[in-house]
Amino acid sequence: MKKVAYVFALAGAFSFASCDSPAEERAEEREENLEEMEDRAEERAEDMDDMDHMDMDTTAVIE
Question: Residue 62: what pLDDT?
Fold first, then answer.
């Protein structure tokens, strides 16, 4: 009987330990936000690079 109680206590401890704490949730949210910001920065850099390769003629033709 003691072994059964020990198994249930151990299972309960594992389930309690697997719960996320508020600090862990905030850290995960920060990591996700940082990844999103990095993705947007990469997209902007690619867009700027694409614009740099475009032949932009800003001269005006006056007749």
Answer: 75
Q: What is the mean pLDDT of residues 1-28?
A: 75
Separation CA 41–CA 35 (nearest Å): 10
Q: How many residues are present in the chain?
A: 63
Domain edges within the chain? 22-63
- Is the Cα torsion angle 29, 24, 21, 5 positive or negative in sign? positive
Q: pTM for this one?
A: 0.50
Where helices occur in 1-63 by DSSP H, the ranges are: 2-17, 22-53
